[in-house]
Amino acid sequence: MVPGAEVARVVVAFEDDAADLAVLHQHGLIDAQIDPAVFSARCLNGLFEQGPDVWRTIRRALQELLASPQGLPRGGLVARSSLDMLLPVAIGDFVDGYGGLHHATNMGRILRPDSPALLPNWRHLAYHGRAGTVVRSGSGIVRPRGQIVVDGAPSFEPTRRLDMELEVGCVVGVGSELGVPVDIEDVADHVFGLVLVNDWSARDIQAFEYQPLGPFLGKSFATSISSWVVSLDALEPYLVPGLVATQDPPPSPYLRSALPAVPDLHLEVLLQTRAMVSAGTPALVISRVEFAEAMYWSMAQQVAHATANGAGTRPGDLFGSGTASGADARRQAGSFMELTWDGTRPLELPNGERRCFLEDGDTLVMQGWCGSEDNGVPMVSFGDVIGSIVPARQN
Ligand code: CA
Q1: 152: Cβ–Cβ under 8 A, 6 or more apart, which residues?
Q2: Full-prediction pTM beyond 0.85?
Q3: What percent of the chain has pLDDT over 70?
Q4: Residues 203, 159: Cα–Cα separation, whole Å
Q5: Which of 34, 52, 56, 385 is the most exposed place for a label (fewest CB within 10 A)?
Q6: How far is the CA of 252 from the centre of ligand 1 (A)?
Q7: Mind spelling out the 3-state secondary structure of 9-71?
Q8: 164 CA distance to ligand 1 centroid (A)?
Q9: Per-position b or e across 206-226, b if 16+ CB within 10 A of its CB
Q10: pLDDT by residue (tens digit) across 188-210?
Q11: Residue 304, CA atoms < 13 Å, CB-side half-sphere
Q12: Of residues 25, 27, 102, 103, which has the active-site annotation?
């Protein structure tokens, strides 16, 4: 919400400000035949449905306008700090991926120590999980209850192993028809952009329920996404081949693209406990992950795979990448499960606190950006994903 505006607005981040598309369109500065209601909306779905040509027309207009922002009409630029951000997408379906090589290997080692870490099918298809509940950054996360095994028997109680999952989500702009698979080379015509994702997980609930059909209630209680959606066009200069280019064996033809590419995205996770807040201690970086070195499967492959059987997609559908972890689980993990190796080597915080999993009052912040100020490559920052753990409900 923009201060003083009676309806929500579609805004585009520009440095510390945001361009109000409703105001710019009202002044005739965006030369696109669009219903003004698209820019005065509580979510971006109306904009998604306009399609890539309109997205690019708006992007070009903004690039020209923001080259001399002092000429913008009153209200055309507002301070980002003054905004009340909303969930940016009316989510259609949320499909959770499992495309991170190091994460999938670590989870296999922890959960199935007597079997090969990666199951044989993992390198052949971009595995996906279930739908879930998506909330905006800043929402409190209530510790979920579920069946966990206590003394050898299932007991319904609050999770004792509440975890994060550091992911990147791909948001569908233009849906695809039921019965018609999306060709891997056409995925960019359907995807609007990317968000950061924290796919909260309850590991003890997950451990009891996940075989044979995969996670359900251990995952579906909450998934937080950033309030800003970064368009694919903005990420185009930062695409790299990454780990995806090393796929062995080569995937099926429908999963092959001429130029495999993932954003060269730097990710960080920060933790601030309640005691740190009380002491005025800032959030501490507990993990750093290079997304392109973490993901074995690309988002284009995920969308191509999910629609290969003719399943359709809709504007606002969200595909999570799967947890992004680097090779060093102690410093580059996208989950506490890996950072603390199933709770066997707790995270030691500078104030003497220890963490195996998340405790009530803990706040997690996920951040991501492409480019680097050091070598003069312009930066594209993703919005933070923030979530604080709220105690379980009593009933
Ligand atoms: Ca996940």
Answers
A1: none
A2: yes
A3: 98
A4: 8
A5: 56
A6: 24
A7: CCEEEECCEEEEHHHHHHCCCCCCCCCHHHCCCCCCHHHHCCCHHHHHHHHHHHHHHHHCHHH
A8: 9
A9: bbbbbeeebbbbbbbbbbbbb
A10: 999 999 999 999 999 999 999 88
A11: 21
A12: 103
- Using pLDDT thresholds of 50, 70 and 90, give the confidence band for residue 42: very high
Please determine, for residue 7, whether its predicted confidence score (pLDDT) is greater than 90. no
* Alpha helix ranges (H) inside the chain: 21-26, 45-48, 52-67, 101-111, 203-209, 232-235, 274-278, 291-294, 299-306, 336-339
How far from each other are the two terminal CA atoms of the chain, in whole angstroms?
34
371-382 pLDDT, tens digit each: 987 777 778 999
CB under 8 Å, gap of 24 or more: what pairs does 29-34 form?
A: 29/61, 29/65, 29/72, 29/73, 29/76, 30/57, 30/58, 30/61, 30/62, 31/57, 31/61, 32/57, 32/58, 32/61
Cite the beta strand spans of 291-356 per DSSP E. 318-320, 347-348, 354-355
Distance of CA 253 from the midpoint of ligand 1 (Å): 26
Cis bond before residue 158 (omega within 30° of 0): no
**How many A from CA of 26 to the centre of ligand 1?**
41
Ligand 1 centroid – CA 215 distance (Å) = 10
Asked if 124 is an active-site residue, the reply is no
Q: Which residues contact 5 (CB under 8 A, 6 or more apart)?
A: 20, 22
pLDDT at residue number 368: 97
In the DSSP assignment, the letter for residue 231 is E
- Cα–Cα distance measured from residue 272 to residue 281, given in angstroms and rounded to the nearest whole number: 8
CA 87 to ligand 1 centroid distance, Å: 19
Q: For the chain, give the percent of residues with pLDDT over 90.
A: 82
Does 52 sit behind a cis peptide bond, omega within 30 degrees of 0 on the bond before it? no
Ion ligand 1 residues within 5 Å by Cβ: 96, 165, 199
